[in-house]
Amino acid sequence: MRALVQRSLKSSVSIKTDGEYKLKESIEKGFVVLLGVCDTDTDDDLNKLVDKISKLRVFEDENGKMNLSIADYNGEILLISQFTLYANCKHGNRPSFIEAGKPEYANEMYEKFASKLKENGIVVKTGIFGADMLVNIENHGPVTIMLDSDELLKK
Q1: In angstroms, rounded to a whole number, what is the distance separating the alpha carbons of residues 26 and 97?
Q2: How far is CA 96 from each of CA 43, 61, 132, 140, rounded to the nearest angstrom?
Q3: CATH number where 68 lies
Q4: Distance CA 142, CA 146 (A)
Q5: pTM of the predicted model, to two decimals?
Q6: SUPFAM superfamilies given for it (predicted)?
Q7: pLDDT for residue 154 is more than 90
Q8: What is the tens place of the pLDDT at every residue in 74-95?
């Protein structure tokens, strides 16, 4: 499981409906998390990433140090499904996405991921799995961190 975490001051997601993008959700401050799932991901992968994101201290304290978690900062998370995090560009110029999870399983894990973050007391807003989305991200810092459960769990 892969999560691209971006610190944000303001972000939103719009969903394409009848040829137009319509606003679905927005956050003022917090994280935008782009989440990719593969078929070998388990609850251990999910729990490790949820725990890491919930405790990640990248928000500035009163001294300007990155020392606060999303909960300490009273931030929100905009969670977006992102199968392209599993793009393989080793051969040719067109990415292959065969390493990405099958849609039914990936959606199940995406929904479970959102629920687990909420269980940690974090306000979570989501896009729609598999939809054509327009994601606006005002990346603060910029701070962008790639998390991979395989690396965190040393698989």
Answers
A1: 28
A2: 25, 41, 19, 31
A3: 3.50.80.10
A4: 13
A5: 0.94
A6: DTD-like
A7: no
A8: 999 999 999 999 999 999 999 9
CA distances from 135 to 19, 25, 53, 108 (A): 16, 10, 20, 21
Look at the chain and report how many structural domains it folds into: 1
Where residue 141 falls (left for φ over 0; alpha for ψ -120 to 50; beta otherwise) is: left
Residue pair 59/71 in contact by the 8 Å Cβ criterion: no
Residue with tokens 């110029």: 93
Q: So which residues are the catalytic ones?
A: 82-84
Return phi, psi of residue 56, to 5°: -60, 120
- Structural domain of residue 103, as residue ranges? 2-152
What pLDDT shows up at residue 9?
A: 97
Element (H, E) at 112: helix 103-119
- The pair of structure tokens assigned to 39 is 């078929």
Residue reference for tokens 């729990």: 47
